[in-house]
Amino acid sequence: MNKCSNVSNNKMPDEETLIDLAELFKVFGDSTRMRILFALLGREVCVGDLADELVMTQSAVSHQLRILKQAHLVGSRREGKSIIYFLADDHVRTIIDQGLEHVEE
User: Fold this and answer.
1) Residue 28: what pLDDT?
2) What is the distance between the alpha carbons of residues 63 and 36, in angstroms, rounded to a whole number?
3) In this structure, which CATH number among 2.40.160.20, 3.30.1130.10, 1.10.287.3610, 1.10.10.10 belongs to the domain 15-103?
């Protein structure tokens, strides 16, 4: 068996994990969802404010937020009649930061 010196010794994840990972990256593969994630960096925002900021309809923003929530990238909480959205955790910020760093190289 040939061995290259820079072959990783990382254990290959199981197929289900690889499928889940691919699905996660598909969610990041949409520029509208990326705009929403950037808008949520470091702050909490309601749908109406996001829609105004991104010059989109509330319906379109809500649709994308639903996808982001299903992927556990965005969380929400109710505040009176409004629902406030935020990044789910620091992992989301790290993925965005590292992706941005990679494309700007």
Assistant:
1) 95
2) 11
3) 1.10.10.10
Per-residue pLDDT band for 44 (boundaries 50, 70, 90) equals: very high
Torsion of CA 16, 103, 39, 63, to 10 degrees: -40
Return d(Cα 37, Cα 65) in angstroms, integer: 9
DSSP bridge partners of 79? 82
Sign of the alpha-carbon dihedral angle for 91, 96, 98, 99:
positive
Beta pairing partners, 74: 87
Concatenate the DSSP letters of all residues of 19-52 into one string: HHHHHHHHHHT-HHHHHHHHHHTTS-EEHHHHHH
Give the pTM: 0.86
Mean pLDDT of the region 81-93: 96
How many C-beta atoms surround the C-beta of residue 101 within 10 A? Answer: 9
